[in-house]
């Protein structure tokens, strides 16, 4: 039976066990070479903090869009570049049990969610 899956420390997606990682599974932290190179930057941490701050300012059941965090962290003309980093930050927060990602009001798996998402506190 394969070991339990893990979460990528960079993008927050699920890493499924593979035979090629049999000897090094304990050391696997990233799902891809791109995630290993990217890691988690100061901007990524700031996006996580901003998501939590924005949620704290709203009612317990309210949600935010990743674009809210991207706009708060980025410049007026460059916030769109922070959309995918904001989604990655939300997935990392889901892994830590701090938030949930929803679509159409229903909680979804952040690793497979496609299209617009909302973020809410757990």
From TrEMBL:
Coiled-coil regions listed: none
Origin: domain of life: Bacteria
Gene3D superfamilies: Winged helix-like DNA-binding domain superfamily/Winged helix DNA-binding domain
Protein name as it appears in the record: DUF2256 and DUF3253 domain-containing protein
Organism (species): Nocardioides pini
């Amino acid at each position: 039976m394969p070991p339990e899956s893990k979460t990528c420390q960079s993008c927050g997606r699920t890493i499924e066990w593979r035979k090629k990682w049999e000897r090094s599974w304990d050391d696997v932290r990233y799902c891809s070479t791109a995630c290993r190179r990217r890691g988690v930057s100061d901007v990524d941490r700031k996006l996580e903090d901003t998501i939590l701050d924005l949620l704290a300012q709203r009612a317990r059941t309210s949600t935010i869009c990743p674009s809210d965090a991207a706009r708060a962290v980025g410049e007026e003309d460059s916030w769109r570049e922070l959309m995918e980093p904001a989604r990655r930050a939300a997935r990392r927060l889901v892994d830590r049990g701090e938030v949930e990602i929803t679509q159409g009001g229903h909680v979804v798996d952040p690793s497979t969610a496609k299209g617009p998402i909302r973020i809410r506190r757990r």
